[in-house]
Design a protein that fits this description.
Blueprint: H1 6-12, E1 15-21, H2 26-29, E2 38-47, E3 53-66, E4 73-87, H3 90-94, E5 103-107, H4 114-125, H5 139-150, H6 154-167
Parallel strand pairs: 4-5
Antiparallel strand pairs: 1-2, 2-3, 3-4
Length: 194
């Protein structure tokens, strides 16, 4: 996809649309079960409410992900629309506070890489752990989880040991009175008896 002049697109209210082959999006492809298919997009240039040059980007498509539970393919429906506005310099971009505003600032360019923005936005929409609804883990994973649940909790064992030791009288140090003296509470004192 050739680069675009985003300021001109915004000034003229131009609209671009098309489809990206998933195979042409390598960073997104790394998260896919397979790279066959396309991602449809549209980019509408405009001036936002504050008169800034802006771009409304819409993406839709069906992405083949891999289910984290059963490892089978999962069809993820990607539907997103985002608004971006453009600033003239990197200094202006760096001065913008990060907030929860729905629009995001980008650096304007006469040779803006729209395909990179499309790929970035598609990646940001992916679920962290894709899973089928109601999907059960494979039998070997379920068996491993059951075995872990059946094992005694090491922290519970440690607590039981601490309680057992707390109930028994403190042992005298070996070698007579050379060791630290203990207070009647069982807490060791320092060398000077404090």
């Amino acid at each position: 996809m050739p680069p675009i002049d985003v300021l001109r697109l915004a000034r003229t209210g131009g609209r671009l649309e098309g489809e990206c082959e998933l195979a042409a999006l390598p960073r997104l492809g790394a998260s896919l079960a397979r790279r066959a298919g396309t991602l449809a997009w549209s980019a509408q240039g405009l001036l936002d409410d504050q008169g800034r040059p802006a771009l409304r980007l819409a993406l839709h498509g069906l992405l083949p992900l891999r289910c984290d539970r059963c490892s089978a393919e999962l069809a993820f429906v990607l539907e997103v629309e985002r608004l971006f506005y453009f600033v003239a310099s990197e200094a202006e971009l760096a001065a913008i506070e990060i907030d929860d505003a729905p629009e995001e600032a980008l650096l304007a360019s006469e040779r803006f890489d729209l395909q990179e923005l499309i790929e970035d936005e598609a990646i940001l929409q992916l679920p962290l752990s894709p899973r089928h609804d109601g999907c059960a883990p494979p039998p070997e994973v379920a068996a491993g989880a059951a075995a872990l649940a059946a094992r005694p909790n090491p922290f519970a064992q440690l607590q039981a040991l601490r309680e057992q030791l707390a109930g028994s009288p403190p042992e005298a140090p070996e070698g007579g009175s050379d060791g630290p003296k203990t207070h009647k509470s069982g807490v060791p004192r320092g060398r000077n008896g404090n």
